[in-house]
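Dear colleague,

Following up on Tuesday's group meeting, I ran the structure prediction for the two-component complex that the binding team flagged. I've pasted the input sequences exactly as they went in, so you can double-check that nothing got truncated or mislabelled along the way. The structure tokens for the whole assembly follow below. Feel free to forward this to whoever is handling the docking comparison.

Inputs:
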Amino acid sequence: MTRKQRRLSLIGAGLAVLGLAAGLVLYALNDAIVFFNSPTDVVEKHVAPGSRIRLGGLVQPGSLVRGDNLAVRFEVTDGNKSVAVSYTGILPDLFREGQGVVTEGALDAAGTFRADSVLAKHDETYMPKEVADALKKQGHWKTEGGGYGLAGSTKETKQ
Amino acid sequence: MIAEFGHYALVLALGLALVQAIVPLWGARTSDATLMNVAGSTALAQFIFAAASFAALTAAYVGSDFSVVNVFENSHSAMPLLYKFTSVWGNHEGSMLLWVLILALFGALVALFGSNLPATLKANALAVQAWIASAFYLFILITSNPFARIAQAPAEGRDLNPILQDIGLAVHPPLLYLGYVGFSISFSFAIAALIDGRIDAAWARWVRPWTLVAWMFLTLGIAMGSYWAYYELGWGGWWFWDPVENASLMPWIAGTALLHSAVVMEKRNALKVWTILLAILAFSLSLLGTFLVRSGVLTSVHTFASDPSRGVFILAILVLFIGGGLALYAWRAPLLKQGGIFAPISREGALVFNNLFLTSACATVFIGTLYPLALEALTGDKISVGAPFFNLTFGPLFVPLLIALPFGPLLAWKRGDLFGAAQRLMWAAALGVVALAATFAIQRGGPVLAPFGVGLAVYVMIGAIIDPIERIGLFRQPFAVAFARARGLPRSAWGTAVAHFAAGMLLFGVIAESQWNSERIVSLKPGESVSVRGYDLTLDNMIQRPGPNYRELVARFSVRRDGAVVDVLEPAKRTFPQRQMSTTEAALMTVGASQLYLSLGDIGSDGAIAVRLYHKPLVLLIWFGCIVMVLGGALSLSDRRLRVGAPKPARHKPSLQPAE
């Protein structure tokens, strides 16, 4: 083989592998991604029952009901609309009423969101970004985490 | 006072970095040895001042000086001493300070151990290193000053995020940063070579040890982070395909590719242009990781307080270095001379195959990580790309790579014998098939993927050690002869075999954990039991215990097997009053490489406590695999040929070397 042929075969192999990777990516992007929705989106966009989505917002204060065998029900709200969520399992450490939460699952025929995973924040001062954005959209956004006002103001007074 | 000292030291480090960024470069252009030598001394001095600055922040933390904002926000006087140390980098400002400290450390190491480097290469590389350092010193001083004071010093701090109050914080970030930042050396050398317009096999020999060191630390850092998440987050997962994890995985994959392509460059003087590109990409991906984690674009446990100006600043650094690096590459790379030619079936060909698949896999991770951000910026749609995406893309790309892995070391340089290599791999393939069949028979109707995964893992492990076994004549020669030959085999050959074997171990662990994991989630009252895989766990009692800065609820479980108590597990839930947070402390019982994993949920109204119990078969192989892989790297590093400071081939007589 000449140098040119070798180089062409190398480039060909490279393109083949990249093509394979691109094909896999396109297939997976069709199949394996999940859209994030706020409760308002869920109600207004009429998300089809059974399609897998993420639902995020605040846990409606007073809505948490614990049933038998680790079943829990609560409502997720963005201040405008709220959606009932049912979940079976252990809630994360930072799950609390009035705090941000992201759940993943699908709506059932009755309009209840059946979550198979519940994610809360990693830290008490943060809110999942998607939730913060959804709340901002509904005009229910206050300063992040409240308690951090102090830290923000102290930074101005350095030295 | 000590905080001001630290601040001042940091400003001086910036000043030194600016000198180091300009003077040696000018010296290299004008071939002025005195100016070029400035690089070494400024690199050392810069490290000393960065270290002094870091020490000052550490002193503020250990002394609980709450008049420093950073200490106030992230520490508490009752915290154990270890966590006072580790919380230095358990926050945005401090972790950036650690970042530049390690950057300065690597610069100093090049200055110290690079005495055999060509003067211009060393001067240029250290200058590039100083550009990066200057950018990050400026970033810290302008947007993230860790030494800012509060006018009215509070009496008590706000405590460190309880999730971070763990030995993991002492280990994971420093190791990870040593890896991330270590790739800056390969980057600086690549840029220096491009500035010089000259590059040869010797370049690869100088760069490879540094890349290897960075890669080893990054491997350990990722593995430790994974184990930490596994036991601390309480739900037994060890990899979440979280964007922040991906941010560390991408430079790892690029670094792995770089290690392999640098071999071709060193041995055969080929793939030069590609190796330079990989060196630029590996560090670019490290910078991208820093940007993703530190800018607040992503929300995760790694993102501390975020502030938009920081994101813009890091983005500017990112654009400057990645864009500048790639532009310089586009301009100068065509000047580099082409290297040796090789047939597609050869050691070089195998390494190219490795590089193709690794970079493609890296690209899929890149897309999976950044696509949601791009989509949100363009359309406003918010999506999450999680494990299913990566299992569909990353997984299939690794299968051919792993099948090809044992072939590489068996093929000759220039022109290899594929059929011969396949024959030598017969045993590995046969044992792989046996393992596949055995797994199929044993698990009877279990997950279909498991037997194939186990078969592939066994094939990779055996295939990896076939080369050294044949070369030392084990099973053919008397043991003493084989042993003597084993000692004579180059360490780098052992390193390759061990690291490749570890890849098989890692795969075995991943397959076993993901396919045969058993989970029980129940709520229990004292006296009640739960069983998994032949282990019966009884909740004996629950007690409240005070800790230094928390209270904990401990549930004591007796673990029985066939009626006899084999262990007592005490998972706990800790409540940290200062931050109004609680954490889950999982209890682990290790049997061989498998683990029982027990963590607690909430107490229900009826007094029963929620319990999560997992049996994780062979899960420890995942992290053992990483550790063995690093040992392989260490063996390779100890090879005389690669040892920093001994780059000359062994056949040169010492007397012929110039005195140093």
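Confidence is low (pLDDT under 50) at residues 142-159 of chain A.

Cheers,
M.
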